Amino acid sequence: MDVSQKKIIIADVDETICETCQQITPEMAKQISSMITKGYTWAFISGTEPHYLKEMISAKLTEPHFLLPTTGTICLDAKNNLFKEEYSYYLTPREKKEAIDAFEELVTKYHIKTLTTKEDQIQNRGTQITLSAIGRNAPTNFKKIYDPDATKRKEWIKFLKTILDENKYEITYAGTTSIDVTRKGLDKAWGIKKFAQHYNIPLNQILFFGDKTHPGGNDYPATKIVDFITVKNPEDTLNKLKEYF
Ligand SMILES: [Mg+2]
Predict the structure, then answer these.
(1) In which band, very low, low, confident or very high, does the pLDDT at 186 lie, cut at 50, 70 and 90?
(2) Digit-coded pLDDT (tens) for 122-139
(3) Distance in Å, CA 9 to ligand 1 centroid
(4) Could you report the per-residue pLDDT of 73-97, keeping only the tens digit for each?
(5) Are 191 and 12 in contact (CB under 8 A)?
(6) pLDDT at 1 > cutoff 90
(7) Which end of the chain is more exposed for a tag (fewer CB within 10 A), N or C?
């Protein structure tokens, strides 16, 4: 791969650009801003909702960029803290109900206890349903040690697959404690392709950064369609950006 040919950077957010659910650091924002000023295009793809991505990324990143929340099923063009929705693909009420019911069964069967609220544990994000095992807003330290190697979530996904039709839904683990259910085919590969089609960008101009690029991880689908760099954490991403750009 020739990194110098890449003009479009698409990055995962949790554990790649930001610590899970935390804001982008000033160092990272500075590095990315300077790249955007030099002519690179930056887009951020995540299972997270628009509201959180705006807070985590756009509140601190002053240069124009794109947000691809809920696995790229929404595209927001972010300029000067104004957000223009370019497109969006929502789940049907029936799809939402099926996914929420499956998560409720899972929570009961495995006695998964939220540290916050029920709404914070099973979230309807419009284009996807997400389980955050101990609550999305649970303390980061607790989240980090909860399921570090995803053992729990791999087991849970097996159970979910006995309830949800695999031909209809995509079930992946994400962040530190989450499982996302999206419509089949709506993974990060789909999100990146949709973005590329919308803006007429050849896939070979895109470089992807992600921390969960191994099979089963929510970044894995992206690795099938674009060149990618696997990172350990945001610090590792920052070092690699400084090294390559
Ligand atoms: Mg991640």
Answers:
(1) confident
(2) 999 888 899 999 999 999
(3) 15
(4) 999 999 988 999 999 988 999 999 9
(5) no
(6) no
(7) N
CA 105 – ligand 1 centroid, Å: 26
User: How far is the centre of ligand 1, averaged over its atoms, from the C-alpha of 175 (Å)?
Assistant: 5
- Ligand 1 center–CA 194 separation, angstroms: 20
Ligand 1 centre to CA of 31 (Å) is: 19
Residue 69 contacts by C-beta under 8 Å, 6 or more apart in sequence?
46, 48, 49, 50, 52, 53, 76, 125
CA of 20 to the centre of ligand 1 (A): 8
* Structural domains in the chain plus CATH codes: 3-89+187-244 (3.40.50.1000), 93-183 (3.30.1240.20)
Residues across the chain? 245
Task: Outline where the chain has alpha helix (H).
Answer: 26-37, 50-53, 69-72, 93-109, 118-121, 140-146, 151-163, 188-198, 220-223, 234-244
Q: Separation of 229 CA from ligand 1 center, angstroms?
A: 12
Find the 174 Cα to ligand 1 centroid distance in Å: 6
Coil, strand or helix: which one is 216?
coil
Q: pLDDT tens digits for 159-171?
A: 999 999 999 998 9
Distance (angstroms) between ligand 1 centre and the Cα of 159 equals: 23
Q: Is the pLDDT of residue 48 over 90?
A: no
* pTM of structure: 0.78
Instruction: Provide the CA 141 distance to its chain's centre, in angstroms.
Output: 20
